[in-house]
Structure formats: structure tokens, C-alpha cells
Specification:
This protein is an alpha/beta fold. The chain folds into 2 domains: 137 residues, Aspartate Aminotransferase, domain 1 (Alpha-Beta Complex), CATH 3.90.1150; 263 residues, 3-Layer(aba) Sandwich (Aspartate Aminotransferase, domain 2). The chain contains 13 helices and 16 strands. Helix 3 packs antiparallel against helix 10. Bound molecules: pyridoxal-5'-phosphate.
Length: 435
């Protein structure tokens, strides 16, 4: 079959048999990707794109990192699968690699198969540990597509799925579209914390098991919290005996230029959820990193949760190889430097030229551009404009991540200076063509 025929066959099979996430099936036209290396992906015909989406913001180490691919192959030869009730060497090593990166006082990891079930099980642990029921989470958040995680989510995806109980939402800090009439990060932080205190009081502190927060809300808009906000949430959680769960599924493992996004925010949570960047999604896995007091709750009491593929050896092997490669190759440092010296400045230059870019915000390889119809009123552009922009970027050789009125600039942590310069030129040309 010719390469062009392979692309056609891939589209044909997909349209005939594959049911896609979050979509009206008759209205989509997914494009084929046949391979990838680093920041680049290609179709069967050899058309190449710079992947500035990292797929679903998960390929932090880049596509097809040789050490991670080799580790999966090696483990496949040794033992492809084994029940979670067994002790398995590579599973133990993966858990140890992760707890070595976590703050002191986190010795245990519960492995799941992705981010949603990580949050699901963190919520379960918090409820059983406190004997309380309610979970507070932000409007403008995404926590995954399962029972409690989707109801904890703060966007439209919750509405058709509200079958779990005990969930309450509050507004978090987002200065560009402040819910608190704030004009400075300090005001936004203070007022957002006051609002959260009032929600806790109004809901009844003794009914609240957990506050669940993305450290940096990702799909909801990459809002880096103002200084003091997360420490303030920690203080409220302590005051009222509430478990603090930080969702690091998207923000963790390098995206912000740190192993965990919460480093640098003077906060230590009680439970940390992770997935995506821990092994860049080479094999599905996620999990909960559990602080010692919560882990101790289940020393003599059964933890009522489990998954057939918890701690799957292929995934565990890919975690060990990913963390080792990220450490040895300075990949976290690269993400931090790129953000500070190349990508951040490049995006700010774009915003000076294109007035439709209302705000540039982010850090590391985790950036959002607010595309607005009017820079004064900050009115968002409608979905058709963002759709046209995404299509134009695709035509010009860049895979973009968009959400609502925003373009999220989220390449792998391994992205090079040259790739960023090329991408900035592509964004510039696409903005000129569409806006
Ligand atoms: N939490 C956050 C912050 C996410 O961004 C995501 C996925 O995008 C999830 C949880 C859910 O992860 P998964 O899709 O692996 O279940």
C-alpha cells in the first residue's frame, strides 16, 4: 500500500469503527499520525508537524524517547503483566523513584491507570481518612472523566455527568477575568482566599473531606496561582481539618519547569495525584502519592479500592526510565530555561504585535494565550475563530492545543531553542492570516 493510501485507510477505519472522546461522531475528521520523534510527528505520507500540544499535554519527554522505549521492550521480554496483589520489582522501583521526588513524609504510591482514577481514589482516601463527605473544587478545572472526578470538574463537561454527590465548587484566582473585582495579584489572592473561607463556613467545615485543586489549572486556562494563594488554601485546610489534594496530572513532572508544580509555592499537600508526564503516556498509568498519616489510616483497615492494572509492569518500567532520563538529561531544567529565556519572551513579542492576544501567561512549557475580540473589554473570540486558527497552524506545520478562546502553547519539555523559534514564526504567520 502506498503511503498516501495508508493515510486514507487510517481515516477510513477510524471513521468506520472508532468512537471518539468528547465529540459528536459525525462532525469530526481525525487526522492520521504514523510516527514521531522528539517534538516532531508525521503522517504516513511524511508530512511533518511540530507538536506544540504534546498531544493532551502529556508527552513531556518528547515522542519515542529511546531509553523509555527500550525499557518497555526489555520489560515486555521479562514479564508483560502481573496482578496488583503480587510484589513486583519494577513496580516497587517506580514507586520509589516517585516518592524520592515527593516532599518528606510521602512514602507510598497507589497506582491507577490514568489521571481520573487517581483523583477518584484520592477523594476516596480523603473521605475515609476524615470520615467526612464533601469535596470542594474550583470552577475552571478539569479532574477527569469518572464518577467523582468529572463532578469535581469545573467546566461544561460536568453538566451531563452529575451523578456523584457531595461536590461543591468555588472560584479560584484568575486575575485576567477576576470574579472578585481585583486589580492586582495581591487583591486577587486575598479575595479568593476570603471567598474560599466563606464557602467552607457556609458548607459546614465538619462536612468537608477535601479541597481538590489543580496546582496550576491546565485545560481551564493555565492560571499560575498568585504568590500566597496555595499556602493560604493549605492554612484553611489545616484550620478546618480538611485534606488538601493537589492534582498534578497535567502540571506535574516537568511541565512548569519543576518536578512538581507546587514546589516554589510554599505548600505541601496531603495527597498528590499524577499521570501524564510521569511516563509521558507511553503506557497508561497514573496514581496517588500518599502522605504518611493518610497511608497509616489503611494500615489495619482495608482500603476499598483497586484496579486490575494497578502498577502495570510495562508502565512501571517506563516510569523508571522516564524519571532517570529526565534527571540525567536535565529535561526539567530545559523546560524551565526554555520558558524563561525563549518561549515566554517569544510569546510576549507576539502579543506586542497582535492586539488580539489579550494576555500571555505561564511558565516552563505551560503557556496560554487569551485570544480576545476586544483587548479593552477582554471579550473572548468565538469558537469559530479559534477553530480557524488551529486549522491554519495545522496547515503551516504545527499541532496546536486550543481550549475555549485560548491557544495553549505546550511543547514537550525537551523542545529546543530552534524549534521554539520556528514555532513562534508559525504562530505569527497564522495570527496574521486569521486575526
Ligand atoms: N487531572 C487533570 C489536571 C487533567 O488535565 C486530566 C486530563 O487531562 C485529568 C486529571 C484526567 O486524566 P486522564 O485523562 O488520564 O484520566
Amino acid at each position: 500500500m502506498s503511503t498516501t493510501d495508508l493515510d486514507a485507510r487510517t481515516r477510513e477505519l477510524d471513521r468506520a469503527h472508532v468512537f471518539h472522546s468528547w465529540s459528536a461522531q459525525g462532525r469530526i475528521d481525525p487526522f492520521p499520525i504514523a510516527g514521531g520523534q522528539g517534538t516532531v510527528v508525521w503522517d504516513h505520507a511524511g508530512t511533518r508537524w511540530l507538536d506544540f500540544s504534546s498531544q493532551l499535554v502529556n508527552v513531556n519527554i518528547g515522542h519515542q524517547h529511546p531509553a523509555v522505549v527500550a525499557a518497555i521492550k526489555e520489560q515486555a521480554d521479562l514479564l508483560t503483566t502481573i496482578a496488583p496483589s503480587t510484589a513486583n520489582l519494577v513496580r516497587g522501583l517506580a514507586a520509589q523513584r516517585i516518592t524520592d521526588l515527593a516532599p518528606d513524609g510521602f512514602a507510598k504510591v497507589f497506582f491507577t491507570t490514568g489521571g481520573a482514577d487517581a483523583n477518584e481514589n484520592a477523594i476516596r482516601m480523603a473521605r475515609l481518612h476524615t470520615g467526612r463527605d464533601k469535596v470542594l473544587s474550583r470552577y475552571r478545572s478539569y479532574h477527569g472523566n469518572t464518577g467523582a472526578a468529572i463532578v469535581a470538574t469545573g467546566d461544561w463537561r460536568r453538566f451531563p455527568n452529575e451523578y456523584a454527590r457531595g461536590h461543591v465548587h468555588f472560584f479560584g484566582p484568575y486575575l485576567y477575568r477576576s470574579e472578585f473585582w481585583a486589580g492586582t495579584p495581591e487583591e486577587e489572592c486575598e479575595r479568593a482566599l476570603h471567598h474560599l473561607r466563606r464557602v467552607i463556613q457556609a458548607e459546614g467545615p465538619s462536612t468537608i473531606a477535601a479541597i481538590l485543586l489543580e496546582t496550576v489549572p491546565g485545560t481551564a486556562g493555565i492560571m499560575v496561582p498568585p504568590p500566597g494563594y496555595l499556602a493560604g488554601v493549605r492554612a484553611l485546610a489545616d484550620e478546618f481539618g480538611i485534606v488538601l489534594i493537589l492534582d498534578e496530572v497535567m502540571a506535574g513532572f516537568g511541565r512548569t519547569g519543576r518536578w512538581f508544580a507546587f514546589e516554589g509555592h510554599a505548600v505541601v499537600p496531603d495527597l498528590i495525584t499524577f499521570a501524564k508526564g510521569v511516563n509521558s503516556g507511553y503506557v497508561p498509568i497514573g496514581g496517588v502519592i500518599i502522605s504518611d498519616p493518610i497511608a497509616a489510616t489503611f494500615d489495619d483497615r482495608v482500603f476499598p479500592g483497586g484496579l486490575t492494572y494497578s502498577g502495570h509492569p510495562l508502565a512501571a518500567a517506563s516510569i523508571v526510565a522516564t524519571i532517570d532520563a529526565m534527571t540525567e538529561e536535565g529535561i526539567i531544567e530545559n523546560a524551565r530555561r526554555i520558558g524563561a529565556d525563549v518561549l515566554g519572551p517569544g510569546l510576549r513579542t507576539l502579543a506586542e504585535k497582535h492586539t488580539a492576544i489579550g494576555e500571555v501567561r505561564g511558565e516552563g512549557v505551560f503557556w496560554a494565550l487569551e485570544i480576545v475580540a476586544d483587548p479593552v473589554t477582554r471579550e473572548p473570540v468565538d469558537a469559530a475563530v479559534v477553530g480557524a486558527l488551529k486549522a491554519e497552524l495545522h496547515r503551516r506545520g504545527l499541532l496546536a492545543f486550543t481550549s475555549e478562546n485560548r491557544v495553549h502553547v505546550v511543547p514537550p519539555c525537551t523542545v529546543t531553542d530552534d524549534e521554539v523559534h520556528t514555532a513562534i514564526e508559525i504562530y505569527d504567520a497564522a495570527f496574521t492570516a486569521v486575526l
